[in-house]
Amino acid sequence: MQVDTAIIGAGAAGMMCAAHAGGKVLLIDHAKAPGEKIRISGGGRCNFTNMYCDPGSFLSGNPHFVKSALARYTQWDFVELVDQHGIKWHEKTLGQLFCDVSAKEIIAMLRALMQKAGVDLHLQSHATDIRKTVSGFALTLHGPEGDTSVTANNLVIATGGKSIPKMGATGFAYDVAAAFGLPVTETRAGLVPFTFTDARFAPISGTAVPARVGAGGTSFDEALLFTHRGLSGPAVLQASSYWQDGAPITVNLDPHTALFDALRDQRQNYGRRNFTTELSAHLPSRLVDHLGAMHDLTGNLADWSDARLMALCDALQNWQMVPSGTEGYRTAEVTLGGVDTDALSSKSMMAKTVPGLYFIGEAVDVTGWLGGYNFQWAWSSAMAAARAGGLT
């Protein structure tokens, strides 16, 4: 089989690239259906991009790398594509855009685009013996109907990272990069819950509260969820991408610094009430019980001086703890690290030392925030590879 472009990985980036690459395109994936991570994302409604997507919302060894691709294919370009296909969407919070009906609509749109472009999709298939040739690349395609020798002018690796291995995620992209002499940065789980070996939060598992969670000098204001294993929720997932093993995280249960004034006002009217009862007007009662084991919350509100109130509020704004670890790739939404951006062209995503070899999407050392940013990187990096210089 001779093709212009062979793409390995039929996820968000792979399908987007295949639909726009031009020429004869072969798309290979080991799964029974394409876009499986799209299907399960956003609670089945796919948080397909973010209104506020910009380079500052991404982690990478080179923070400037993402600028070119994001500028040339923006969130509004993808929204326009979604609109053209009649997919209804809505903003949920913080600029997060979701399908009104189902994530399957995004998959159907990409499949329609690929069908129109004449993409040859091979599912339940995998590639081995990938090698460089004088004119491009050669590989062996293993599929339900047997083995096929494939030659391609261009090879695009879009197999993602290691997150969610139960869906078949592996380090395939890193192996290909290494085989061609490209450096790969250290990888670890990102957008992932924290764990504590002492199960300290098990008694209040399921309790959620608005909070500011910080790690590595960066903090996020969103919901925090206490779990049997540790901490989760959007604020925690966001902070996890900035956390290093053994370092502390900071939880601020009073991010808007309103608690001190509120409790002082309550003291004037309800001073005879138990302090924990009044604190429970601002924090979940189960959390207040948990805090009672850490701080002296005894007495009536009238017994609390301004200094005592301030000391407690300060403590709740600077609750530091050291997680034992994270839940790892099993539940991580993304993989931090990947193919070193120094080895790739930011304009085309092509390897600088291997003409015709491209890496796109999560396989690259680019990780976005929670909330549609990683999908936008998939769309933008895919279009950079498909358009820059042309893959045909």
From TrEMBL:
UniProt key word Flavoprotein: yes
Keywords noted in UniProt: FAD, Flavoprotein
Coiled-coil portions: none
SUPFAM superfamilies noted in UniProt: FAD/NAD(P)-binding domain, HI0933 insert domain-like
Protein name: NAD(FAD)-utilizing dehydrogenase
One Pfam match: HI0933_like_1st
Cofactor field: FAD
Species per Swiss-Prot/TrEMBL record: Sulfitobacter mediterraneus
Matching InterPro entries: BaiN-like (IPR004792), BaiN-like_dom_sf (IPR023166), FAD/NAD-bd_sf (IPR036188), RsdA/BaiN/AoA(So)-like_dom (IPR055178), RsdA/BaiN/AoA(So)_Rossmann (IPR057661)
Transmembrane parts of this sequence: none
Residues in RsdA/BaiN/AoA(So)-like insert domain copies: 188-334
Keyword Transport: no
Domain RsdA/BaiN/AoA(So)-like Rossmann fold-like: 4-387
